[in-house]
Amino acid sequence: MSVLQSKSSEAPLWPRITLVTAVRNGARYLDGTILSVLSQNYPNLEYIVVDGLSTDGSVDIIKKYEQHLAWWTSDRDKNVYDALNKGFARSSGEIMGWLNASDLLHVNSLFTIGGVFSTFPEVDWITGRATGLNSAGVVTQILNIPNWTRNRVLAGANKYIQQESTFWRRRLWVKAGGYIDSTSNKVGDFELWIRFFRHAKLHPVDSILGAYRYHLDALSHDVRGYQEGCDEIIERELRCPTVSKWPRIVRRVTHGIRKVPLIRGLWRILVSEPLYTLRGPDCAGVIVSRNDRWMLVRQ
Q1: Alpha helix ranges (H) inside 20-79
Q2: Number of domains within the chain
C-alpha cells in the first residue's frame, strides 16, 4: 500500500465549482435543494438553475434566491438532460457537477470537493460514498466504496455511480464531448460516465458529498428500466476497439449461467463479488482525510 499526501496543511485556493440544478414542477423539494448548496457559503461557487416552465411555484422559489445564483432561466426543454446542457453551456467553473431538484448536498461537501481537486491536480473526476434519503430528507443509507474501473463497469460490476456525489474537471468534460446525451432517456448520467472512463480513472473519496432522495417521481425509481438502459449502453461500448476482451467474456458467461443455480452461486462468490470489492492495479485508489490532509491511498 502506498500513500500520497497533500504538500501543505494550509487552506487551498478554492477552485470555481459549477453546480447546475434542472427542475420542472419540483416545488415540493426545490427549496431544500437550493439551500443545501447556498448555505455552505463556498467562496467560489457558480450555481445555475434551469427551470422547464414549471406551473407549481418552482419559479417563485428560484426568484427567492436569484441574487445568489450565477444564472437562471425558465424555458421549454426536451428533458432534464437537455436542461442540464443549457446550464453547463452557460458555465465557467473548473469543477462541474449537477444536483437534481429533489436531492441534497451534505454539509460542507463543496469544501471537500474543492479541497480534493486542489490537492490532486492530476485527478479528473471523483465520487463520494453513495448516500440515500427518504422522502422527508432523512439519511437512511450510506454505502461502502466499490472499486470502479472501466473494465469492471463494462463487465457488469458497480454500474451505480451516484450522480449526486460525482464531480469532474472541465477538461474531462471537454474530452468527453462536452454534453450529456439528451436522447438517453433516464440513463444520461451513466452514458456520460462511460465516456468519462475512456479518458480518466474514477477516484472514490471516503466522504459523503451528495444524497439521493427516494420518491416516486424520481427518474431512477424505475430500477428495471434503468438497468436495461445501462446494459444497452454497455453493449454499445463493448464494441469499442479500446475495450479489452475480458469484460465481454465475463458478461457472456454471467448471462449464460443465470439459469443454473449452483454454478450461478459459485460464479457470484468467485467472480462477481471480487469485481465489486477487491482492489487491484486497475483501481485508482481511495482519497481519504487524515490529520486534516487529503491523501490518495493505493494498494
Answers
A1: 27-38, 58-64
A2: 1
User: What's the Cα-to-Cα distance from 176 to each of 184, 191, 243, rounded to whole Å?
Assistant: 16, 11, 16
Cβ-proximal residues to 274 (8 Å cutoff; 6+ apart), any chain: none
Q: What is the pLDDT of residue 3?
A: 45
Other Cβ atoms less than 10 A from the Cβ of 3: the count is: 11
CATH code of the domain containing 155: 3.90.550.10
Contact in structure between 287 and 205 (CB atoms under 8 Å): yes
pTM: 0.91
Q: Residue 9: pLDDT above 50?
A: no
How far is the CA of 163 from the CAs of 131, 151, 257, 269, 278, in angstroms? 11, 19, 31, 28, 23
Q: Which amino acid is at 6?
A: S
Q: Alpha-carbon distance 287 to 99, whole Å?
A: 22
Question: Amino acid identity, residue 19?
Answer: L
- Residue 78, phi then psi, degrees to nearest 5: -75, -40
Residue 36, strand partner residues: none
- Specify the 3-state DSSP secondary structure of 140: strand
Alpha-carbon gap, residue 72 to 7, rounded angstroms: 38
Determine how many CB atoms are found less than 10 A away from the CB of residue 179. 16
Are 108 and 39 in contact, with CB atoms under 8 Å apart?
A: no
Segment 37-60, tens digit of pLDDT: 999 999 999 999 999 999 999 999
Q: How far apart are CA 218 and CA 189, in angstroms?
A: 14
How confident is the model over 214-254, as pLDDT tens digits? 877 665 567 888 888 999 999 999 998 989 888 998 888 88
pLDDT digits (tens, 9 = 90+) for 116-155: 999 999 999 999 999 999 989 999 999 998 888 999 999 9
Q: In this structure, is the dihedral angle defined by the CA atoms of residues 21, 96, 283 and 227, taken in order, positive or negative?
A: positive
Secondary-structure breakdown of the chain: helix, strand, coil percentages, each rounded to the nearest 5: 40, 20, 40
Yes or no: say if 120 and 296 are a contact pair by the CB < 8 Å rule: yes
User: What mean pLDDT is predicted for residues 184-204?
Assistant: 94
Q: Which domain holds residue 254?
A: 2-298
